[in-house]
Amino acid sequence: MKHLSILLMSAGLFCIACGTLQAQERTEETVVETDSTGNTTTTKIVRVSKSEDITPRNNVITINPLKFFLFYNLSYYRKVSANIAVGGGLQMPALAGVTGFGVNGEMRFYPSGKTLRGFYLAPNISFNSLTSNSVTVSAFSAGGLVGWQWFPGDDFAMGLGIGIDQYFLSASDGDDVNFFDGYDGTFPALRFDIGYGW
Fold this sequence. Notes:
Helix content is 9%, strand content 60%. The chain has one helix and ten strands. The longest helix is centred in the N-terminal third of the chain and has 18 residues.
């Protein structure tokens, strides 16, 4: 329950922060006009304009550098409609003494209709097979994220997401999962990714 309350508070702060990311520009001008009789009129004009990136992107490749402490990772997302993108990824353990592989799948729903850009909701699943000290553990997880994807450069992608994952472990030698013992259950998820979009 503690994890859930922290997650909900973080989600609220995250959504508020993402709402402030819209680019706006304020311009002040003073216009002096003189008519044919020589009368001068000075007018102060304030213009506020909003800019939006409308570059079409159908594909994004990302890595999660925070995850590199545990897993080398690479993910790919493809736009399939105005609101939906699907993706998958591969990962390998980065910890000494741990070998194996992992795969994951994700569907992102963009309520704004600007797929691969802006706020999204993302259910996801993953499977990992990891071995340490001759114990092989299969880890399956299912979870969900709320996130924000943006492009601060032409093709440079950045993303941030928070969510929750439920992990289910099974070990090769019964209940003895030694090294992996603390990774069974529900955990908050944090994602920060960087990548390339086209």
